[in-house]
Amino acid sequence: TMFEPLKETVALLSTYGDEMPEAIHQQLQELPERWDGTKKLALRAKQNAAPLQASEVTAIRRSCQ
């Protein structure tokens, strides 16, 4: 749904005779998959960082006490 406005804009431009290169159409098809991959990568990075953050929180609490 995030990329629908872009697709609609490209469709609107084509109704006015302004055709986009084929590469643009191909990218619009690939973007949702690539965005999902990016979100999954960010989630994995967050999960990998969580134990490190927890140990840092524990170390900071100990030093404050």
Key traits:
65 residues; mainly alpha; 85% helix; rod-shaped
What does this structure look like?
- With 65 residues, this protein is mainly alpha-helical.
- The protein has one domain.
- It has two helices and no strands.
- The protein has helices at 4-15, 22-64.
- It is rod-shaped, with a radius of gyration of 22 Å.
- It starts with a helix and ends with a helix.
User: Would you report the number of β strands?
Assistant: 0
Largest sheet features: none
- In angstroms, what is the radius of gyration? 22 Å
* Shape designation: rod-shaped
**How many helix segments?**
2
Fraction of residues in β-strands = under 5%
Q: Which regions have little confidence, pLDDT < 50, spanning 5+ residues?
A: none
Helix content: over 70%
Total tally of structural domains: 1
Cα(first) to Cα(last) distance is 49 Å
Q: Spell out the helices and strands N to C.
A: HH
Mean pLDDT: 94
Class from helix and strand fractions: mainly alpha
Protein name: DYH17 protein
Organism: Syrrhaptes paradoxus
